[in-house]
Amino acid sequence: MAKSLKDRLIQALVDNKLIAQKDLERARNIQAKDGGSLSKILVKEGMIGEKDLVSVMSRELNIPAINLSKYKVEKDSVKLIPEAMARQYKVIAICRFSNTLIVAMADPLNIFAIDDLKMLTKFNIEPVMSTETDILDSIDKLYDTDDKSLSDAIKNTEETGLEVVSMAKEEFDIGEAALEGETPPIIKMVNLIILEALKKRASDIHIESEEDYLRVRYRIDGNLQEALRIPKKNQNAVLARLKIMSGMNITESRVPQDGRFKIRLQKKEVDFRVSMLPTSFGGKVVMRALDKSNLSIGLDALGFSRDTLARFKEAIAKPFGMILVTGPTGSGKSTTLYSVINQMNTSEKNIITIEDPVEYQIEGITQIQANAEIGLTFANGLRSLLRQSPDIIMIGEIRDSETADIAIKASLTGQLVLSTLHTNDAPTAISRLMDMGIEPFLIASSVVLVAAQRLCRVICKACSGKGCKKCNSTGYFGRIAILEALAVDDKIREMIIENASVDDIRSYAVSKGMKTLRDDGMEKQKNGITSMEEVVRVTTEE
To answer: Three-state SS across 16-73?
Structure first.
């Protein structure tokens, strides 16, 4: 029986006395235990040099080998292959003749790489051999992009220690997409996307199917920035990998799905909440990064002004009542409430939350996931959890009159209730509750504090806002909350019962020292924390 190509290569290495038989057996044992390519194991374990391996492979495969460090590469040819793909497959285009592209490859037997390159470049691919080290060094020198961070992440993904901690354990139908989704290059690609998002402090990762490619964008400091375009050929595999990680049904692509997973990176764990929508070109995935370390800093480190912080601390010290945080989606309401309950999370307190979805999973707190499809609405869940003798209740959002009514009454019977509303400012929350049918005297008796919140970008300290590499040339690095905190005193209770206008309540609150959103923002602008443009941008309804 004719020997396989792999056996011929191994025999050639032994015949040329480049590896000893005992080393070969040790490498095979490592391969049997950990998997992977035998040739890579031989190099990694120091049993053979990269150049010696390439030399033998070149002779056996009858494929020329070149020394890239001494070869003049055509830069126009290099750019025919995107840097991400060059790093993924360990290849670099060096020159072209007519309709043929000469490509240096660390693994010329990778027919999938050759097929992908042919489809992408529209050239016939003629491989030559070079060492992986030389190819990666050439990529570093020849791809002169402004932002090398994503390329570096691709290069170093295997060494980052990025680990998926929790994944779905169910079995799935093994279709073509599932098989592709579990191949190492795709796993590596998804890992590098997540790794780079964490490195850039992204709050969200958007992966969007376009007509000709898969677009990756990161939301950094509230703004979306395009990071990468993945070849359309890899779309199904990338989406399949994300479904597998998130515990979604890999065979379903017609309806929206939600899931979550957790990764560990250098002893730090980050949860990701995942939403997938079917679209005309295949699907859109949004992954929200939920870093619990952001919640342990406490109220004092959230950047609140002194007066606002004092009002918050006075409110949460009360044994019962309702605290509301208002603002549009993405204004940091949930983070503020989580920071509050995390600070109050002691063994003496029974804290229960009902959320849709549960964002941060916090040890020591009972958290309920609302699910209207099975009848577990906010209202029904709230009724049930009241029988659990809670001290503090957090409701993800007051969306309807039934939830509002139960929450108000709970706050009057001995519980501290925290929740959110979608209103533009603090006084408007009072009228919003009235619009839901809540009696004014109940609102006056229960609500102790209403805070309206926005997030402003912080001027980059490294460049004072001019734009630099650290802030990705935006001039901003990080965000800070601006708030107006309306403490409900006896006069405001009287005004609520008398059905006073929102403007009258606001005027009185300002006269008693309440800073409006714009006033709080202007104070931070004067202190050099943010810019006037940012303050105006986030308080345009003022």
So the answer is: CCCCCHHHHHHHHHHHHHHCCCHHHHHHHCCCCCHHHHHHHHHHHHCCCECCHHHCCC
DSSP lists the bridge partners of residue 258 as 275
Q: First CA to last CA across the chain, in angstroms?
A: 83
- Sequence-distant (≥ 6) Cβ neighbours of residue 263 within 8 angstroms: 162, 163, 164, 165, 194, 269, 270, 272
- Angle in degrees, CA 66, 70, 74, rounded to 5: 85
Residues 6+ apart with CB under 8 A from 52: 18
Q: How far apart are CA 143 and CA 139, in angstroms?
A: 6
Distance between CA atoms of residues 235 and 237, nearest Å: 5
- Tell me phi and psi for residue 346, to 5 degrees: -125, 170
CA separation (Å) from 74 to 97, 106, 143, 230?
11, 19, 12, 24
176-199: pLDDT as tens digits = 443 344 446 777 788 888 888 988
Residues 6+ apart with CB under 8 A from 3: 11
Instruction: Residue 93: name the closest of 83, 80, 84, 109 by CA.
Output: 80
Q: What is the DSSP string of 379-421?
A: HHHHHHHGGG--SEEEES---SHHHHHHHHHHHTTT-EEEEEE
Using CA atoms, how far apart are residues 236 and 169, in angstroms rounded to an integer?
21
SS3 85: helix
Are 337 and 423 within 8 A, CB to CB? no
Contacts of 504 (CB under 8 A, 6+ apart): 495
d(CA 92, CA 347): 59
pLDDT of 169 above 60: no
Chain length of the chain: 542
Predicted confidence band of residue 50 (pLDDT cuts 50, 70, 90) = confident
Taking alpha carbons only, the member of 407, 514, 406 closest to residue 452 is 514
Q: What is the pLDDT of residues 445-476, one digit of tens each?
A: 999 999 999 999 999 999 888 888 888 888 99
Q: Pick from 142, 141, 115, 139: which is nearest to 127 by CA? A: 115
* 371 secondary structure, DSSP code: B
> Around Cβ 526, how many Cβ atoms within 10 Å?
10
C-beta neighbour count of 77 within 10 angstroms: 19
> For 326-342, what is each residue's pLDDT tens digit?
998 888 888 889 888 88
Taking the C-alpha atoms of residue 464 and residue 528, their distance in angstroms, rounded to an integer, is 9
Q: What are phi and psi of 157, to 5 degrees?
A: -55, -40
Q: How far is CA 201 from the centre of its chain?
A: 8
